[in-house]
Amino acid sequence: MNNRIINWFKFASPQTFYPLAGKLIPWFWALTAVFGLAGLYIGFFVAPTDAQQGEGYRIIFVHVPASWMSMFIYLVMAFWAALGLGFNTRLSGMMASALAPTGALMAFLSLWTGALWGKPMWGTWWVWDARLTSELILFFLYIGFIALQSAIDDPRRADKAGAVLALVGVVNIPIIYFSVKWWNTLHQGASVSLTRSPSMAQTMLWGMLLMALAFWMYSIAVSLTRVRAIILERERHAGWVEELTEVKPS
């Protein structure tokens, strides 16, 4: 058992993680395509029309998974940032940096698809609703994390500064999740819960879950792709990177 743990620890090195990520990326892109196509087909062609919201509700097949991923990615980013801050590991900071743009994209999608849904349902593109406002703050946290790291030339110092911001921002995640319970908001409660039966048709649920899996696989694939680029950039003076990028004469 201890030997297995030690074997897994070897992937904490950028040099050993780089080829592993390269092998995993095609699989996650393939799963993204499979789950995405299945989810879109069920969500837009199989799921029934909602009795109250009509066809407009179908935007939830993008909005809800994007909202879930925006929160989940931030927690994962903060986890990697904390590991880097606590154990001073190079790969941890790189992983946090790689995750941030994807998290920002998910938060952006959540906000815009929510606005597109809110206009016909609420009659307005935006309200200072507790959940919408806290999701907007999450988007700004992602942007702030990216900007802070970009403003510091030394990658190790940038990782530590970003880690502090990421950990402080974690408090916003439960605020987003519980906002509809803590305050009187326009935003509806969760349609999917671990403690009770879903309040939607089975086909709707399957479409949403498949799209959530597609977003999850996409996030992993693009983050692994980005971290490989970060590894090459930061480790460019290391011998193994020079050998890897060396152009051999024909």
Q: If you had to describe this structure to a student in words, what would you say it looks like?
A:
The chain has helices at residues 2-9, 14-46, 60-87, 90-122, 130-151, 155-169, 172-182, 202-234, 239-245. The protein has 250 residues and is mostly helical. The protein has one domain (24-47, 58-245). Helix 3 crosses helix 5 (130-151), helix 3 runs parallel beside helix 8 and helix 4 (90-122) packs antiparallel against helix 8. The mean pLDDT is 85.
Key terms for this structure?
about 250 residues, about 75% helix, about 0% strand, globular
- Which percent range fits the helix content? over 70%
What share of the residues does DSSP label as strand, in percent? under 5%
- Pattern of helices and strands: HHHHHHHHH
The best one-word shape is globular
Q: Structural class of the helix and strand makeup?
A: mainly alpha
User: Count the helices. How many?
Assistant: 9
Arithmetic mean pLDDT: 85
* N-to-C CA distance: 46 Å
Number of domains: 1
Number of strands: 0
